[in-house]
Amino acid sequence: MAKDPSFTCTACGTATSKWAGRCETCGEWNTIQEVKPLSSGPGAKALGRARGRAVPLTDLATEEAEPPRTLSGVEELDRVLGGGLVKASALLVGGDPGIGKSTLLLQAAARFARNGLRVVYVSGEESVAQVQMRARRLGLTESPVRLAAETGLRDILTTLEAEAPDLVIIDSIQTMWLDTVEAAPGSVSQVRAAAHELTTFAKQRGIAVVMVGHVTKEGTIAGPRVVEHMVDTVLYFEGERGHQFRLLRAVKNRFGPAGEIGVFEMTGRGLVEVRNPSALFLSERGQPAPGSVVFAGIEGSRPMLCEFQALVAPSPHSQPRRSVVGWDGGRLSMILAVLEARAGIPFAGLDVYLNVAGGLRVGEPAADLAVAAALVSAREDAALPADCVIFGEISLSGGLRPVNQTENRLKEAAKLGFRTAITPERAKRGGDAGLALREMTTLPDFVNQVFGDRQAPA
Ligand code: TYD
Ligand code: MG
What's domain 69-274's architecture? Predict the structure, then answer.
């Protein structure tokens, strides 16, 4: 029963029937790989049977309440997990190499072990001695975590059957290999088969399995994307190389809200949770400068303040530069266009740089007004008051739209000592948390009120 070979993009996970040099979906080069069918896998014999066996059917009603959860005690982690670790679940922790995934998971393993779980940590990348050295550096040598350095999944599963742990950490899924799959470790076929085995094992035995997955641009190693749809929870560990801050972000969670983030700081003794991220992200702010704006954002369920910085300068190029870090480039173009078309502020012939301080990535449209403010402030060389936060969505017509959780944003700003907030006019009145509100309805209105006396003729 030879099947047509199928191909998968290692960057975005799209399946295609033929090979191509470039993925049509995500546009990456050299990421399409052949995926071998599981014809030699453990399910192959069962598939050969003429008839399947009857599967028991049941009702939608259940006796069971919420799945039981175990807390690690690390609040930043527990919140991202949706309120603790769930039994019989599969998790993927993705991130760039060297960002701190192994450190995070070794620390989490130790915490869960201390809270009574039987924890096994399997490293496929480092030797036992290397992991022990890290444990010493983190001060975790006393913790009852069981450790092995192994890549053969058959042996690992046999070991786990005997050990019967509550939590298994596989670091990383790209190093695991199954002898039933004829492909190199790290290939799409191996990663997918190994993740499938581990996920099935987790469900059958009622244990939590955490898989580490490196995100790579080159595409020679299968990215975690091909695993994402198999697991219950996908967490990404992000951060900028030059910064100490690390963000753990839930991009998918069957047991809790997605979009939740936890903030950590990488120190000489491992990761330390950051309880007040707003203060951290604003800590490098000096005197009010043109182009700098504080945005009152929401990340997951939590308000978080951060700083947008813009620089606008005459461009020596025929095509001016538009460079953005920490925000969406397409959205920047839109705001530049709306500023030009609706508020009469052109950016033609000007290079524009936009940056979110501290390595944070903001995805909310609620940041539109903060971005517009940063751009105009940089262009007009006029600083905003230091005690002012800004948020609001901008529509293509130049109107300002109110955003969700206005009260939470204001409360967080008040807590950090801000006195005024520039926001869209709200239909529903709520508390102002003691801030002086400057509510506006349109972008031209905003530009006139805030920069009116400074604005150069368009
Ligand atoms: P690591 O957890 O090995 O990253 P990953 O598993 O994602 O590849 O972390 C590697 C980096 O973290 C390395 O550059 C050293 C740094 N680090 C610290 O700064 N402090 C520490 O206590 C530890 C253990 C690592
Ligand atoms: Mg590692």
Answer: 3-Layer(aba) Sandwich (3.40)
